[in-house]
Amino acid sequence: MDGEELIASVLHKIEREKALITAASNMRQSTDNPLVQQRVDANIREGRKNIAYLEEKMRELEIRQRNQGAGSPGQRGGPAPPPKDYAGYGGEQGDYGEPHYPQGAQARCLPVPHSPTLDLTPRSRRLGPITQS
């Protein structure tokens, strides 16, 4: 979907929420049942929250569309990919860790600490809790 289609979709959702709020208001006025009125009031509040959220998203889409229109055609697809001969990969002097991973990947691949009393293997789940010996 392009920007205009997304904006039209969000506008359609806003109109649908407004119609639901109108219907809920009419239902609230047509009943004296306090439980029904409470439920309808909750639906109205939820619809108003949805409208506020959708309007915020619509503003973001409009800003994004305006910014894309101001940029050059090459900038519309996001940031440019890195060059194929990217020198940020391991194997250079001073690098640590696996030579075929980029330096930044090591921070994302830290080992998960395990509790000495918690065994997550399938065997431990079948046999019950672990006991300290």
UniProtKB/TrEMBL annotation:
It comes from the Eukaryota. InterPro entries: HR1_rho-bd. Residues 60-133 are annotated as: Disordered. SMART domains: Hr1 (SM00742). Pfam families: HR1. Residues 1-67 form the REM-1 domain. Signal peptide: none annotated. One of its GO terms (biological process) is signal transduction. Keywords: Coiled coil. This is REM-1 domain-containing protein. It comes from Penicillium brevicompactum.
